[in-house]
Amino acid sequence: xxxxxxxxxxxxxxxxxxxxxxxxxxxxxxxxxxxxxxxxxxxxxxxxxxxxxxxxxxxxxxxxxxxxxxxxxxxxxxxxxxxxxxxxxxxxxxxxxxxxxxxxxxxxxxxxxxxxxxxxxxxxxxxxxxxxxxxxxxxxxxxxxxxxxxxxxxxxxxxxxxxxxxxxxxxxxxxxxxxxxxxxxxxxxxxxxxxxxxxxxxxxxxxxxxxxxxxxxxxxxxxxxxxxxxxxxxxxxxxxxxxxxxxxxxxxxxxxxxxxxxxxxxxxxxxxxxxxxxxxxxxxxxxxxxxxxxxxxxxxxxxxxxxxxxxxxxxxxxxxxxxxxxxxxxxxxxxxxxxxxx
Length: 342
Description:
By secondary structure, the chain is α+β, with helices and mostly antiparallel strands.
C-alpha cells in the first residue's frame, strides 16, 4: 500500500538543511543547529508530523518531521533492543544424530522468529523454574527422522526422490499447548514466522528429538528477542538541478543516483523524479561538468524511517510500542527527579 506523500515532499526553502559537498557536509550559515534551540512543548506539538508513505505485509516506511536526531535515534534503538518478543530460550536435546553439533543446532533454533504476540505473555521471572508455565512459556516439539524413499534412483542429484525428510524446516516444529493455551491460541498464531526456514540437512539414519521452550525477552539481552530485522532512518534528501541538463550529460546524471531518482523526459532533459530514495553516494562529484549544476542537501529535521517486522507485530505496532516505552522512561526519570511527571 502506497500513501500520498505530497506533504512529505513539499518544497520549503525555510526548512533547516545541510549541504552535501564532495568531501564534507556544509552547514547553513544562518542555521545554528538544534543545540542552540530551547525546547518548547507547544511549538514541538505544532511542528511534529508523522506521514505514512508505504505499507506492506511486514514493512513500513514513514516520515517524521520536527524531531531532533537524539529523539529519532532513541526511537530506533528502543525498537531494536527494548520492544519485547518471544523466542526459543531452552532446547532440550533428547536425540541428535545429524551432522550439526548440539550447541550449533540450539543456536540456530533460538534465532527462528516466532509469530506469538508477546503482549499476551508475562516475563519469566523465576530463573530456577526451567519449565515455566502457561502464562510465560510456549512449548514446541521437533521430532523427525530421515529415511530412504527409493533406493533405486540412479541420479544422485535427485535427492527428493531418494530420501524422505532430508531437509528439516520450521514447518516440522509443532506447538504443544499448555494449560488453557489451546483455547486462546492456534498453531498459526504462535508458530514460526515462516514455514520454510531451513534448520538442518539429514541423511538416512539421522534423527532429531527436541523439546523447545520459548519465553518473552528483549533485544538488549539477546538479538533473538529483537522484533525487527531492520529499524533505520535517514534524513530526507533533496536534489536541485541548477541548470537544464540534457543529452549524454542527462543519462550520465541518471547513472549517478539510485534507480528512480533521476528520469529523462521526452525532450531528453533530466529531472528529479523522487529524491527521497537517493542513497547519498555523491557519485555526481566525479564529473565536474555535472557537479557544478547539481546541489545535494538533506532536510535536518525530516526523518525517513523504515521498519521491517519479523512477524510477531505489525510494523506500525512496533513503533507504537517503542513510543510507549520511551514515554515510560521519561515519566520514571521525572519521578526520580521529584517532578510532577505530567
